[in-house]
Every structure is written in structure tokens, then in C-alpha cells.
Protein: XRE family transcriptional regulator
Organism: Hominisplanchenecus murintestinalis
Amino acid sequence: MNAQKTGSLIAAIRKEQNRTQQDLANELGVSSAAVSKWERGIGFPDVSLIEPLVASLGITIAELFKGERTENSVDNEYESLLSNVVKVSANEITRKKKITNWMIAITVAVLYLMISVISHKWEITWVVWIVYCFYRIFTEYIYKKY
């Protein structure tokens, strides 16, 4: 994948469609600065935006990754494989973010609990935070179960 070629392709198709960077950004739920970075080859869209982006531009994932339009149609099996890879990657990123958020929340709750026990002071905000963390853990567990 070449970010420069991909960015040029995104810009060319967007301009062919007579759309502004802001139009594309609004459709994808990102900032126009993000679209500008993609088009200049400074960055690449987040994996969770790949499918909405190709749908918006009317190209295939393979074309986006290559950075050029292909005259022969891409094999449906190949495109399906790329789509599955993108979905798995996006799900994995989401899962890792969730785990990180939970680790932070539990660490803060344990620290608050330790401070409360050591200082013999039970601030209401600390108690609310601890209860909230355990509530989230419990509801997550129930949602996973069903």
C-alpha cells in the first residue's frame, strides 16, 4: 500500500464526484483535516472506515489499497477476503480498546478503594466510582452471556 497513490485516488474520485473534502468527511464522520491528510498521503484511513469509504467512492477495497483503478474486475472471492480482513482488524482494534478502558477503570477503582481503606475516608465520589465500575463489569458479563 502506497499512501501517496491511495491519497491521490481518493482525491481524484472525490473531485470527479464534485464533492468537497468536508462532504466526504461528513459522510464518514471524520474531520475534513483527516480527509486532507489521506489525500496528501500523510495518513491512511482507519481500518473501520475502509468499507464506508470505498462504498462512498464507488471503488473496491483492492483498488483503494492499490491506489489505482483496475480495468478488469476484481475477483469477488478476493474482494470478500479483503473485506473480511478489514472487518476482523476493526473488531480486534475495538476489542483491544475495550480491554484497555476496562483495565484503566478497574485500576482506578482499586486505587480509590485502597486510598479509602488506608485513609479511613470514604469520599462519596470514590464510592460512586467503585460502584459504577462493578456495575459496568456486571452488565458487560450479562450482555456477553446472552
In short: The chain has two domains: 3-66, 91-145. The two ends are 40 Å apart (CA to CA). The chain has seven helices and no strands. The CA atoms of residues 23 and 32 lie 8 Å apart.
